[in-house]
Sequence to fold (272 residues):
Amino acid sequence: MARIFCIANQKGGVGKTTTSVNLAAGLARIGQRVLLVDLDPQGNATMGSGVDKRKLELTVYDVLLESASVREAAVSAEKCGYQLLGANRELAGAEVELVDIERREKRLKSALAEVQADYDFVLIDCPPSLSMLTLNGLCSAHGVIVPMQCEYFALEGLTDLVNTIKQVHANLNPDLQIIGLLRVMFDPRITLQSQVSEQLRGHFGDKVFDTVIPRNVRLAEAPSYGLPGVVFDPNAKGSIAFVDFAREMVERVQRMAPVDQPKIQVKSASSA
Ligand code: ADP
Ligand code: MG
Fold:
């Protein structure tokens, strides 16, 4: 049974999509069956997986409106090794269209339940807001991965997200927990970043992932080739870090409560 994780942070440009596509590709590389759900109308995770968002016949929008199942709407991101439930601008309309619909925040959860046996991991790339779309993601998930840059205001920015997660946990999804904070775009030469990184560790302890994703230009270049960095340049520092992060996620999942425990076998990246 798949473990479902949201990659969320209400700030834009913090590395959610980069984390989503590279973690998906990293997990695929170590032998995991992965579905990546693009829940952002910008469709960056879709394009970054080599799938043209303008040519998609069915997207997560159709799934939310229950006019298609996940199996019908998911496509193969062939070069990346995972399945993709894509998104495009149409998804922006879902926000309004879902308003008057019952169980509106549980649409994605019900749809994903049908395919949980098909995957080891389902990753959801959330939009930069705490909207109905993000709420659908949070209601579906076992946990949240929060990518963040080690900047001065990083901790303050977390408060809203943490409060939302607490509310969803209390009212809508008792399974939900913060799995961890992922330090991204990290530059150890910048003293402030090292200081904030230490602060995060002090404040959140083992809720901070061991893996740190460095700032790496290859990760930024990869989307223009329609590939995650992990596939575009597997030897780049940033790509190696994301495969390490994939391994760390597999280990974390193995330590999570045994309900619906997925069967996990880690293959080394070189043999994949
Ligand atoms: P979000 O989805 O949160 O808006 P993105 O993943 O799109 O953020 O990242 C924002 C920008 O930062 C993109 O241009 C991306 O290529 C770049 N970026 C993300 N992570 C890294 C990294 N580790 N090193 C260099 N550039 C990065
Ligand atoms: Mg994004």
The mean pLDDT is 92.
